[in-house]
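User: Run a structure prediction on this.
Assistant: Running it now.
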Amino acid sequence: MPVLLVLFVATVVELAVLIAVGHAIGVLATIGLLILTSLVGTALLRREGARTLGAFVDALRARRPPHRELLDGMLITAAGVLVVVPGFVSDVLGLLLLLPPIRALVRRRILRSASRRTPARYAPGDVVEGEIVDEPPAPRSASGELR
């Protein structure tokens, strides 16, 4: 239910902004501005997507987990969806998400939230105290067989 409410509110906000901009600058200029923001968003989407894919491949070649790159890819995909949806509010949010500094802020916030929800794991080199218990060997018969 909350998702439907968010979609409804987003649609109402987008329509209200479109109508307000249309009254302020005219219908043709509004349509032209929508097309322009979509074209700029598509260009940024291609550039940032290629950059993130390259970073992903570099991380795999360096044999390190590509957590950052995967999260960037997901955020770029979300930005692409926002840019494609017609409307000024979604375009602005999508364009902001395509900018690396803004994406880094969102990524840090997502990682911080995820780290609070997951249990701590041991890192290489951590000392874990334990106890080794040696069991006495099983008794053998004179022929060497286990009893």
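The chain has five helices and no strands.
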